[in-house]
Amino acid sequence: TAMTLNDIRTKYEPVDQFVTLACISNPLGGSLTSTQRWTGASLQKVLADVKLKPEATHLKITAADGFDEYVDLETINKDDRIMLTYEWDGLPLDTSHGFPLRIYIPDHYGMKQPKWITNIEAIGQWQEGYWVRRGWDKDAFMRATSVIDTIATDMMITEADNTMKVPIGGIAHAGARGISKVEVKVDDGDWTEAQLRSPLSQTTWVIWRYDW
Prior knowledge:
Structural class: mainly beta
Distance between the termini: 59 Å
Low-confidence stretches: none
Order of helices and strands: HEEHEEHEEEEEEEEEEEE
Radius of gyration: 21 Å
Shape: elongated
């Protein structure tokens, strides 16, 4: 089955999702992560039109740079958030972000989500993808992480008893599992619960604040 980019953009109702993505090699506090609004087509709906053979169990996704990865059809059938993405914050993907097409799979690091997709093939068994063949994690599930992004020394707060407090803020993320609580510990003090801002979606990071 041959589909053009225009087919995917026009034959399927666009799906918008606010998503936090990260590279598996992103160091703690690193810059290889971001939250954006992605727009694309439901992969479930695209596959329904393709009419795969009964023996198909996985998709082999190949990218223009030679990268390849394998996705379990059972995973796709269970999660309607998986999509073929063609826009980034309302604009067509540029080259650096995966033009013409990339896949989004919740709860996995970027190594499982090819960009620059040129071909998708249905096959009858799982195989090792590009990075798995090189010794990287087979599943690459996102791990829970929390980082301090700012210490607002220019916005100190004076309490009624003249106690000075310094606002500290950051992000916390755990893939598609969400964040229920962030606690902060300073030196040998107690763990204290921070304030959380409501996330943009269940698949984005949570912004937290603690007044120290």
